[in-house]
Design a protein that fits this description.
By secondary structure, the chain is mainly beta. It has one helix and four strands; from the N terminus they run ββββα. The chain binds FE2/S2 (inorganic) cluster.
Length: 80
C-alpha cells in the first residue's frame, strides 16, 4: 500500500454518506478510491454509516482492521 501518511484520516461523515475507501494503496486521492485498483483483484471498501459521526480511516496501510485505523501506525514497523 502507498504510504499516504503515518496517522489516520479523521473524517466527519453523515448518516446517509456512502463512501468508497481505497484498499489497494494506489489511489492518488487517499484514503478514497479513485479507480486505480482496476486491473487488480482488490476492490475498494464501500461503507455506509447510519448516523452522523467522526471516523478514523487508516492512512498508513498497516491497520489490521482496514479501512479503519487500529493504532498500528504507532507500533508496527515498516519493513526495510
Ligand atoms: S493510520 Fe494506519 S493503523 Fe492508524
Amino acid at each position: 500500500m502507498t504510504k499516504w501518511q503515518n496517522e489516520p484520516f479523521e473524517i466527519k461523515v453523515k448518516a446517509d454518506d456512502k463512501l468508497a475507501f481505497c484498499m489497494c494503496g494506489r489511489s492518488a486521492n487517499g484514503p478514497y478510491c479513485d479507480g486505480s485498483h482496476k486491473g487488480s483483484d482488490i476492490l475498494p471498501e464501500i461503507v455506509t454509516f447510519g448516523r452522523d459521526q467522526t471516523i478514523h480511516i487508516c492512512g498508513c496501510g498497516r491497520s489490521h482492521t482496514r479501512p479503519y485505523c487500529d493504532g498500528s501506525h504507532k507500533t508496527d514497523t515498516v519493513p526495510a
